[in-house]
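Researcher: Here's the sequence for the chain we discussed earlier.
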Amino acid sequence: MADYVYLDSNAFWLMKPDHPRFDSDFKATVARIGHRYRFPFSEAHFRDIAAGDRPGNEPFIEKDLAFLETVSNGRAVVLEQVEKRPSDELSPAGSPIPGSEGPWITHYVVDDVAKLYRNSPKAKSAGRFVSNAEDSHPVVMNIIPDDHPMKKHLLANNGIMSATTFDSFIQEFRERFNDPKYYKNFRKYVTIAASRIGMKDNLMGQSVAEKLESFQVFVTANSVEEISNSVLGAARVIAWMKGESFDDLTWPDKLLRSYGLLDYNQYVSDSISNKNRPSNMMIDANHIIYAACAKHFVTMDGGFHKKAGIIFSALNVSTRVSDLSSFKSIFS
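Model: Thanks. This is the structure I predict for it:
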């Protein structure tokens, strides 16, 4: 069974002859090492293509899907948790993730995998935050700015911070997550809240604040090494707030949770706009899952390169992250 190289969507498209930045050297490199490595597509590539699925774009969508299938030779990388599984002989010999068999390389065609994910169960509910009744406490409302994302939920609960208040807020957050203005405002207040952990008037209350110190360390970290060393501590805190144990999560969930947190550290956070909405980060997080069991991960996005390296280092994943030039150099 050949190992695989995982390409993010932008790297895939650079091998399209009609692409404005078509890279013939890259295409030749992929062809030259095709006997040694597979170049599978994944669910995340479908999500990227679907972002442009608008009336009138159907011919372009079909063209992208056909190209994806051609470059991958019809092979997809599919998580073993999904219902449909390939035969045992297609199992990778070893995974870069310690203790995990990782995804499977398959020979599904594009349409088969598209149907597989379209019919797969939806993600579970994110669960309740601060679910213990003893965590309820009154908040001094006149110190809460009007644009604070929690304010209207606190007012609706008579100024009491509680599980009910958080549940209400989380519901709104899920509904408005992809609104750039709302998300950027929320992210701003996460940074402010982290800076106030330990203060007497902290919105979260003293009993919760004492458990948030590792989150504060993560948010204020300002180097790749510091972020990598602190992101799992922050992920454990968030899991605790949801009534979960981070260590008991599946490895894909650990990757997703940890990657999502990176946007709350200003050193590596994404620039959010109408063109780069928060949902794009979720697609990147899905790419991370499938890249984590590859020998090499190739991305043209410098920020994505840095964030992937941080998560892989934090979780002891041995996948090598490369930009286009370094990947071509490795196999020159």
